[in-house]
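Researcher: Here's a chain I'd like modeled. Treat it as a single chain, no partners, no ligands.
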Amino acid sequence: MAYQILSLKWRPQTFADVVGQDHITRTLVNAFAKDRIAQGYLFTGPRGVGKTTTARLLAKALNCKNTPGKSCNTCNNCNEITDGRNMDVLEIDGASNRGIDEIRNLREMIKYPPMNSPYKIIIIDEVHMLTTPAFNALLRTLEEPPPHGKFIFATTDIHKVPATIISRCQRYDFNRITVQAITDRIIHILKEEKINIDDESIKAIAGKADGSMRDALSILDQVISFCEEPIQYSEVVSVLGLISHEVYFGLTDAIIERSGEQLIRVLNEIRFSGLPVNEVVLGLNEHIRNLLIATVPKGLDTTEISGELKQRYEDEASRWDHRDLLRISRQLMELEISTKRASQPHILMEMTLMRLLEMDDSVSIDQLLSKTPPLRSQPKYKSEPRSKPKPISTFNSPPNPKSQQTVSVPKKKQEKTPTAIKEPDAQKKIEAVPVETPPKSETPKVSITIDELKNQWVDVAEAVSENRPSLGMILDNSLPVALNGKHLTVDVVNESKFNVGILDRSRSVIERKVHKIFDVELRIKFVLDKSTSNNDEIKKNRTKNTNGTNSKDILKKVIDKFEGELLR
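Model: Modeled as a single isolated chain. Structure tokens:
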């Protein structure tokens, strides 16, 4: 007898044998139990997931003589349907019978009662290949077929089926079969076939199948033909052209270590082994995805990765910052698209990976403000809430509105890291500010004049620029013009109404900087000044402050420090 491939030999013969489609088989079984059988069914889903097989099982359940609603697989009707020779079940291919003439013949054929079965059933595979006139010719018969007529359609592209056809059928969406379900089925088949194979090989075959049981059994046939028993993973990798995990770990090790020598060595192995570039990129993207999931506590528990490999991913993920992995994944997504139309995909992949060696570490705003060095080894996705940064301590007492004392000299800007100042330096800083000591029962009240505000307004702009460079650049073109009690009016020169609105919405930030520099609580009002009368005084204040730098200088220093560029 001629050899029968596994995908045909182990084709499901009952609803219980169908793998990974319980939501469909259960619905059909219950429909028979409740006698609620529709006149038309539409099965849709990816290849190799059981659409045509389920259509045949449904036909056997409808025409079985011994157990209607179930396929006994012993009566003549069940055996004939299994062999594809039953006269009352017509299975045709929509790709080769797609015209209106073929549909007219079906309409005439279904009018005649069945010969030896309760129903005359028409199964059309790849129904989306029918032409538009053919679909239109089928509408009336599909909606109101004769009592003995049933239609079962199967398609891999539901979007090409007209809505008028879909609305006349019961639609069932078949899912991709999970790796675990494919693995369990392969183990069962190998046990019945008495073939020895290791677990790693079975998982490799199930992963290569990409959710298709038919593909999995075809690959298994190929592996059995190539390998000697017992089948080993190294032989499976060779026959299927799989890429070892060592290649991907070697690439990511080279990137995180910034080792060009190691990266070139791994890339040469890929090139000389003849591995297809698109497969390498797809696998590397999956590898980065596993590393990203491993940064989440117990994240890999939801995946289908083996225990030993899972531990290796967790160890490797502890060296990475999840933000860097996201950036790498974005680059690989673009590479995956580009390699499909590149004339030299190997060079494109190599240049992209070499560029990843120059990728800077991700730094959060909190790290920039606190000057914490970025560490890829620090914990990721902490479950406990992040602690708030401690406020910068000051040596002077905070202002008290009840006090009556004044300060004749404005306090200079605080240092960024006062905690690093030793005690003698702190004492000198206190002595440099001539504050009159009030009685113990009172605290000094701080006041300021408009001239002092004008002279030191550049300090305010610089202080704002440290955290908000764009806001400081706008504030750099402003000048205090009037002080009425605690209400300060600031004119904004050579700016748009939009920028004035930004200053107004960020008023609280600027007021805190004023309070920090002058020890004065003021309410600021920003007014657009269309005249040029204040231009000279603003320029004068900029040049007067020779010890400081303006916001543009600060922005330039930030760009130089982080080797960045300004995008306009």
